[in-house]
Specification:
Strand order of the largest sheet: 1-4
CATH architecture: Up-down Bundle
Order of helices and strands: HHHHEHEHHHHHEHEH
Helix content: over 70%
Structural class: mainly alpha
Oligomer: single chain
Number of strands: 4
CATH superfamily: NCX, central ion-binding region
Length: about 325
């Protein structure tokens, strides 16, 4: 156990609490800006949740995986993505559903969730092929993400009635100017990333003072840290009655994690997939995605009971890997 003075303790606690405040403010600004932007662009809030919000809240995963791969830590680069995908579904959706049951749109059930499942299986296929994610496979993921984003946007433009129904439920979505809403989204994303960084740094420092091992820190604090933006966004979206942004954020983030984070990282630095990932973590990720698909289809809603079930599954998973 390392010894620190009272000033160091205060600094770490201030970092943790300051990060929490910035995270909450960033999430609130992002959700408000995203909901209004959806109306102004003539698309559903689900589309913004699947694209702009999902891409922004996945920024920490991009940074961690790129830095890890550059340093030759392929296991950490891949574990970051796999762990985030598992945590996004089991922890983030679970907690958001406890705040308020989340309605799941037909588009998610019929299109976006199957896309998430397909590319999760594709990642496993590439990984099991030769234990590597090569440059061409990374480029394939990037191209697939570009195609998915374009198809999502133009498909949404074909159904303006959905947007009108959303606007009737919450007229405040149409307020504000387009430039201001874009600025709000940028500020919100920056707040999420900066807030999560401060929280993780503070929590890691406190954990080291208390003598907690680096392995446990990586499996808990750091893994949660890269999912904090999704967590903040989903809980705030659920509280504000924006389930499409909450659910779309998670589905979009998982798609983005595989296609963009793995895609961009592998394009620059081909990734070697470790045996523990092949034997356990990747199959668990696929199983969790399948479970989420089943939960989405039960009543087109994630109930509080189902949210609790997702949290229970994560507790089992964490207990297993720490055993």
């Amino acid at each position: 156990m390392e010894t620190y003075g009272s000033m160091e303790w205060l600094k770490l606690i201030a970092m943790f609490l300051g990060g929490l405040l910035i995270l909450g403010a960033g999430g609130e600004i992002l959700v408000r800006g995203a909901a209004k932007l959806a109306r102004q662009l003539g698309v559903s809030a689900l589309v913004v949740g699947l694209t702009v919000v999902a891409f922004g809240t996945s920024a920490p995963e991009v940074a961690v995986s790129m830095q890890s791969a550059h340093a030759g830590e392929d296991d950490l680069a891949i574990a970051n993505v796999v762990g985030s995908c598992i945590m996004n579904i089991l922890i983030v959706l679970g907690l958001a559903a406890l705040v308020r049951p989340l309605r799941v749109s037909r588009n998610v059930i019929n299109t976006d969730a199957p896309v998430m499942l397909f590319f999760t299986a594709m990642f496993m296929l590439f990984a099991f092929d030769n234990g590597m994610i090569d440059r061409w496979q990374g480029a394939f993921f990037i191209a697939a993400l570009a195609m998915y984003t374009l198809v999502t946007y133009f498909e949404a433009r074909r159904h303006p009635k959905i947007v009108e129904e959303e606007y009737e439920r919450d007229p405040r979505q149409g307020q504000g100017s387009l430039p201001l809403n874009i600025v709000a989204i940028v500020i919100g994303i920056f707040g999420l990333v900066k807030g999560s960084d401060l929280m993780v740094d503070g929590a890691v420092g406190i954990a080291r003072i208390l003598g907690i091992s680096t392995r446990i820190i990586g499996l808990t604090v750091v893994a949660l840290g890269t999912s904090l933006p999704e967590l903040a966004t989903c809980i705030i979206a659920a509280r504000r009655g924006q389930p499409d942004i909450a659910v779309g954020n998670i589905v979009g983030s998982n798609i983005f994690n595989i296609l963009a984070v793995i895609g961009v990282t592998a394009t620059f630095f081909p990734l070697e997939v470790g045996p523990s990932t092949l034997r356990f973590d990747a199959p668990v990720m696929l199983a969790v995605v399948v479970i989420s698909f089943w939960v989405f289809r039960t009543g087109h809603e994630i109930s509080r009971r189902e949210g609790g079930f997702l949290l229970f599954l994560y507790a089992l998973y964490l207990g297993w890997i720490l055993w």
